[in-house]
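Incident log, support desk, overnight shift.

02:14 A customer reports that sequence design results differ from what the structure should imply. Their input is reproduced verbatim below. On-call engineer (initials T.W.) acknowledged and began investigating.
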């Protein structure tokens, strides 16, 4: 579905990603884990079109999207839930959700999709008229994911969805992520909560200092003692 080939990204003269390659298969839930500063957020922002590749190629569903304008990535079928949620806090929850469905094809199905995301996150229904800034952190994360789903993406990118949330909320959030994938949306998850990420994912990549150092199923990676100790907190 998504092929990343020898991706290099830099901030000015500072290289952040060095020849990163990965594949997201159709219907897969894939995670990328690694220590702070490994380049995980840089990677996911590049896959969403927010950062331009200095070298390498991004191919989505057989189409080269490397040089696609950032606002066209959503139209292509890719949606991002950024780190920190980035809701419009002065707008209502409903207004935030509607912003996710501004494209013609998703706007035509807005009512149906709205019901689907409310079913996924029932707490949203009673908060639709509330300013997004008044919600708890966990509720805001649910709205951020729901807003991305309003675009009806085929690939959902999630950047640190558990950041700053209580263990109970994290458990519910990852159950929702697993459901999103189960009903047909491919998911690429960047996450520091390695245990939860490994529990829900089909495959995983380990990123360190801008380079991929390992890949495999969670079971395969956990069975490699040097990887488990150095990167997976085991």
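02:41 Re-run completed on a clean worker. Output:
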């Amino acid at each position: 579905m998504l092929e990343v080939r020898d991706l290099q990204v830099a901030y000015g003269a500072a290289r952040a990603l060095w020849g990163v390659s990965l594949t997201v298969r159709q219907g897969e839930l894939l995670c990328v884990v690694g220590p702070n500063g490994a380049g995980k957020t840089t990677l996911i922002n590049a896959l969403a079109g927010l950062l331009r590749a200095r070298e390498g190629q991004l191919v989505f569903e057989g189409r080269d999207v490397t040089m696609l304008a950032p606002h066209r990535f959503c139209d292509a079928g890719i949606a991002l839930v950024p780190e920190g949620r980035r809701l419009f806090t002065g707008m209502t929850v409903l207004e935030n959700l509607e912003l996710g469905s501004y494209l013609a094809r998703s706007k035509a199905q807005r009512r149906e999709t709205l019901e689907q995301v409310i079913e996924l996150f029932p707490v949203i229904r009673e908060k639709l008229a509330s300013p997004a800034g008044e919600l708890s952190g966990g509720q805001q994360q649910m709205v951020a994911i729901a807003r991305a789903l309003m675009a009806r993406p085929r690939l959902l990118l999630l950047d640190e969805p558990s950041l700053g949330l209580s263990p109970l909320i994290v458990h519910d959030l990852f159950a929702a992520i697993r459901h999103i994938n189960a009903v047909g949306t491919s998911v690429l998850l960047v996450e520091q909560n390695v245990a939860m990420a490994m529990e829900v994912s089909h495959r995983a990549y380990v990123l360190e200092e801008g380079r991929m150092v390992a890949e495999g199923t969670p079971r395969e990676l956990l069975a490699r003692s040097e990887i488990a100790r150095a990167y997976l907190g085991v």
